[in-house]
Amino acid sequence: MLRTFGAVWTALSSFLSLAPLPKFSPAHELAHDTFKLQQSWGVYSPYHAAEHYIPPPADCEISQVNILHRHGARLPTEHQTKDIHSGVKKLQSAEYYTDSRLDFLETFEYSLGENLLVPLGAIQSAESGKAAFQRYSSLITEDDIPFVRASGMSRVVETAKNWSAGFAAASDYTYTPKLSVIFDEAGLDPLQDDLCPNASGSHKEMSQWLAVYGPPITARLNSWAPGANLVDEDIHGLMMLCAFHTVASVPYEYNEGSPLPFSPFCSLFKPSEFEAFEYSSDLDKYYSTGYGARVGRVQGVGYVNELLARLTGSPVSDHTSTNSTLDSDPATFPLNHTIYADFTHDSIVVAAFATIGLFPTHKLSTTHPKAQRDWLASEIIPFSGRMVVEKLTCDRHDASDSYIRILVNEVLQPLAFCGAKKHGPWKGLCQFDAFLDSQEYARNDGNGDWEECF
Ligand SMILES: *[C@@H]1O[C@H](CO)[C@@H](O)[C@H](O)[C@H]1NC(C)=O
Ligand SMILES: *[C@@H]1O[C@H](CO)[C@@H](O)[C@H](O)[C@H]1NC(C)=O
Ligand SMILES: *[C@@H]1O[C@H](CO)[C@@H](O)[C@H](O)[C@H]1NC(C)=O
Ligand SMILES: *[C@@H]1O[C@H](CO)[C@@H](O)[C@H](O)[C@H]1NC(C)=O
């Protein structure tokens, strides 16, 4: 849930300029459960945690924390902007509207811009940094503050900086993490999402699903805007616009717990249609860098091998996307910190899930979604989504032993693949060595998959 941004806002407001407050028409039909709706925008959902964080068992202490963090809410990419424009232009070309929900288009001017982090993305990233400080403050000393890296794209870098600012503000500026590594986008970078040119993407699967859910929506909007001649592809763009326009319009002074002010584009669609839209995100991630991609999850191997290096305190062993110059230098890849935070894109976080073995999922149908599924993009990789790997030292049976547990957006993962218990206080904990053994795919550099990228 969206929490109090007060303290962080006070700290941030000094260096953030205010965005203008948009005027919205009420999203009448949709008002019934706005939070739920915002959480059905797939990878375009604002951050929300499905559960509350549960501390480790009483006999355990956290000895290391690794955070892999998606950038916060952003503007559409160039490619998405084209799709969005197409639908907006067609709707605006209609001579008249038969439904008042389209009336706002008579004066609407599209002006979102591209790619950048938006205020909500900055706020939610700062909030994440604040939460990290509060949760792990006992692990922090003046000599040992989080080591922070980011992939080179602006929105990722800004997310890392806002996270660090939120962390610093929460500590009353006693601890101010620096962004120590910004990867050059032209080089090897385990946090970059375009290093595998032969990856096939998910266009085919998303189109198959669009052909199922799109036509009734296309027909309805065409009947509301005679002459617009929308096609199914435009529907995907317009539904994305509901999410992008909403997150882009949230002002910096956005307030705790209140639902976001909806873009009027949202009122063009029904909740059940957003569920279908959410599934297109599930398919997108599953067939891009998830389990459904021929060369997908291998893009997470570089990060996971770095994670294993930190967990074991030994040099990185990897022949995929990592930069060996950076990783062999203690200034750019130290092994003596307690908290590490890495900022990246959704595709890489998803690839890391699939490399590690999280959310194991059989083939997703492109025509018949299962109502109950673990692979739910809105929950596993919303804007500012994060995976946290905690290393624990636990006293058990008169001996001290190391364990691993993993949280994704606060949800404790079952880790069945390394023998974690399903119930009780030790739920979700794997013995350290069992976890390392389970990471064979990463340790084998992706079993030859990386070579297929080129
Ligand atoms: C890690 O090692 C470096 C180089 O020896 C040292 O400068 C730094 O203070 C150490 N950091 C921590 C957190 O121990
Ligand atoms: C936070 O993000 C915003 C939006 O991208 C940016 O303007 C601001 O400089 C960032 N804050 C810091 C501390 O870098
Ligand atoms: C590794 O990183 C360094 C420092 O950014 C850069 O100069 C070098 O080109 C990178 N190497 C590769 C193979 O990308
Ligand atoms: C990768 O793509 C290139 C260019 O299309 C092609 O020549 C090459 O065979 C592909 N490699 C693999 C392993 O599929």
Give an overview of the whole structure.
With 454 residues, this protein is an alpha/beta fold. 36% of the residues lie in helices and 11% in strands. Strands 1, 2, 3, 4, 5, 6, 7 and 8 form an eight-stranded mixed sheet that branches. Helix 3 (78-93) crosses helix 7, helix 4 (119-136) packs across helix 5 (154-170) and helix 6 packs antiparallel against helix 8.
The structural domain count equals: 1
Mean pLDDT score, rounded? 91
The CATH architecture comes to 3-Layer(aba) Sandwich
Low-confidence stretches: 1-32
Helix proportion:
25-40%
What about the largest sheet? 8 strands, mixed
Helix/strand order, N-terminal first: HHEHHEHEHHHHHEHHEEEEHH
Euclidean distance between termini CA atoms: 41 Å
Structural classification: alpha/beta
Tally the helices: what do you get? 14
CATH superfamily: Phosphoglycerate mutase-like
Tell me the number of strands. 8
Distinct bound molecules: 2-acetamido-2-deoxy-beta-D-glucopyranose
Organism: Mycena sanguinolenta
Pfam family, one: His_Phos_2
Subunit structure: Monomer.
Subcellular location: Secreted
Q: Can I get a quick summary?
A:
The protein is of the alpha/beta class and 454 residues long.
Features:
454 residues; alpha/beta; Rossmann fold; 8-stranded mixed β-sheet; 14 helices; 11% strand; globular; binds 2-acetamido-2-deoxy-beta-D-glucopyranose; acid phosphatase activity; Phytase A; hydrolase; glycoprotein; His_Pase_clade-2
Secondary structure blueprint with pairings:
Layout lengths: L5 H8 L20 H5 L21 E11 L7 H16 L25 H18 L10 E4 L3 H17 L8 E4 L20 H22 L7 H18 L21 H18 L12 H12 L11 H4 L11 E6 L1 H11 L20 H4 L5 E11 L2 E10 L2 E2 L17 E2 H7 L1 H4 L11
Parallel strand pairs: 1-4, 2-3, 2-4
Antiparallel strand pairs: 1-5, 5-6, 6-7, 6-8
Helix pairs in contact: 1-5, 3-7, 4-5, 6-7, 6-8
The structure holds 2-acetamido-2-deoxy-beta-D-glucopyranose (4 copies).
GO molecular function: acid phosphatase activity; inositol hexakisphosphate 3-phosphatase activity
Protein name: Phytase A
InterPro entries: Acid_Pase_AS, His_Pase_clade-2, His_PPase_superfam, Histidine_acid_Pase_euk
